[in-house]
Amino acid sequence: MDGRVQGRGSSHSAGSPASARWTPPGLRGDLTRWLRGDVIAGVTVWAVLVPESIAYATIAGVPPIVGLYAAPAALLLYALLGSSRQLVVGPMSSTALLSAAVVAGLAGGAHETAALTTGLALVAGTIALVAGLLRLGFVASFISEPVLKGFVVGLALTIIVGQLPKLTGGPGGDGEFLGKVWGFLSGLGGTDAITLAVGGTALVLLLLFRRLLPVVPASLVVVVLAVTATWVLGLDRHGVDIVGTLPSGLPDLGLPTLDRAGYASLIAGGAGIALVGFAEGLGAARTYAAKSGARIDSDRELLGLGGANLASGLCSGMVVNGSLSKTAVNGAAGARSQVSGLTAALLTVLTLLFLTGLFEKLPEAVLAAVVIAAVLDLVDLRALRDLYRLATPASTRVYGVAARSDFLGALAALAGVLLLGTLKGLLIGVGVSLLLLVSRSSRPHIAELGRVTGDDGLARWVDRERDEHARPEPGVSVLRVEGGLYFANSEYVHDRVVDAALPGHVRDVVLDVRAVPFVDATAARMVDRLAESVDRHGSRLLLARDLGQVRDQLRRTDLLHPSVEDAVRAARDSRRGAHSGSAPGEHR
């Protein structure tokens, strides 16, 4: 059911259009009827959120409790400001690793690391909030999905390698991906057998639960079993590292102890984290909104992300963003509104007040297993393989060179993360996205069209590369520009069309502008100049399917025709007139 219809039918949400406008989108609908299902979904989300938040805090390099501090206020603010009914926000592996990378080069000690991590959440939140107020939600469209996929795969591999030493109890390496891999392999001799057994068993159980019992909150079940085993078997007395003391009670509210220079040093990293968090969260929100026919407002998503991070920072938390895995759990549990998120927030508060002691005996190897199991799905090698298949010569003939560019973009982002680090990999990913965008738009596909007669007897003009039955018009080259015309590609289009006029058997060139969404002044002047260039080669230019922007800016309106067929007919009639009016044997 459409979200607007649900909102009008609700007795709880809004009695009038005016009140509906002030109700947060995530809380519109028949909340009374959905309450039971949403509360159950919230309990399920809480069961996943608590152990994962503790685990992701360790990725960020801060005490585990910081992950729990971040969750309740972030869930509350997103419910009030975001546009998705089902998106769950909280600490995430990708932004946690980015946070660790930003803070690592600035912090001088554990206390400063915590302050900078909290400050980074405030900076990222402020940037996202301002971007939302300025309606900059369209920015996410400039990171192509293949590039984001390559970046996320690289990020997931880096996270997994970083968790392996905790899983085995051996030493790890420093630096980026390759340094971590070398350090782990070099330290395999120091593997602790008991730690490896605990972490390996936890990982196997998590993967089995996911495959055989996907509705069970596997993370919570495995954490409870691990804590019980530690108490019963005394694993911590046999060399297994545990989480240790988790302070109970609510976090201190307020700003971290940072000066202006400290905040300024976090701006670049905060912008990167805001961009990645926004792109990931928006993708998750749209994925589940599409299943219910709801709409996601990208500008409100920026506001929701900004508010969630500001709230987390003010509560001594860490950076947060929308989680695809937890949103999947939420949707599968039957959530219909953000009541599920508010329920998870309330239960997390109760955990902070009364249940932190239960997690003190949790082995760090089990936390590593939780992280690895959570990010394994992000290593989407099948998607990279599909991109590679589209990049083969046979596929590029069908899908165009854009398919090859997509694969190269994904590969560049993946290599950037693995070889240069997460932040530099992010910059490479954004740069490659923009470069691919400019490259494609500066060289739009120009299709050569041929005529196909349908069963109804009407002629259609289609790309000859895609339809072997399409036949060209003798003496006429029919072309279609598939993309906008603007200053960066006007010369390319000009030269391609002129090349089509060079063969001696071509008298006229018909340019179909149906697929041209926009034209700037430079391109409009180019079309006038193109007509003159084609004339000099003994041919004539005609434009088919009148485009308003072209007509408004062209000086020569005699070039325009309402359809390709009309333009071809005009070319044919002109050729006949030229032949009848010329001396025998004369040929232009």
Topology:
Layout: H1 3-8, H2 17-22, H3 31-60, H4 65-81, E1 88-90, H5 93-104, H6 110-133, H7 145-168, H8 177-186, H9 193-212, H10 218-233, H11 260-264, H12 267-292, H13 298-314, E2 321-323, H14 324-332, H15 339-355, H16 364-376, H17 381-390, H18 393-399, H19 401-420, H20 422-442, E3 445-453, E4 459-463, E5 476-482, H21 490-500, E6 508-512, H22 521-536, E7 540-544, H23 548-553, E8 560-561, H24 564-580
Parallel strand pairs: 5-6, 6-7, 7-8
Antiparallel strand pairs: 1-2, 3-4, 3-5
Helix pairs in contact: 3-4, 3-5, 3-10, 3-14, 3-15, 3-16, 4-13, 4-15, 5-6, 5-12, 6-12, 6-13, 7-8, 7-16, 7-17, 7-19, 7-20, 9-10, 9-16, 12-13, 12-14, 17-19, 18-19, 19-20, 21-22
Q: What does this protein look like?
A:
61% of the residues lie in helices and 7% in strands. It has 24 helices and 8 strands. 50% of the residues are buried. A 6-stranded mixed beta sheet has the order 4-3-5-6-7-8. Strands 1-2 form a two-stranded antiparallel sheet. The chain starts with a helix and ends in an 8-residue tail after the last helix. The radius of gyration is 30 Å and the shape is elongated. The chain has 588 residues and is an alpha/beta fold.
State the main characteristics.
alpha/beta, 6-stranded mixed sheet, two-stranded antiparallel sheet, 61% helix, elongated, disordered N terminus, disordered C terminus
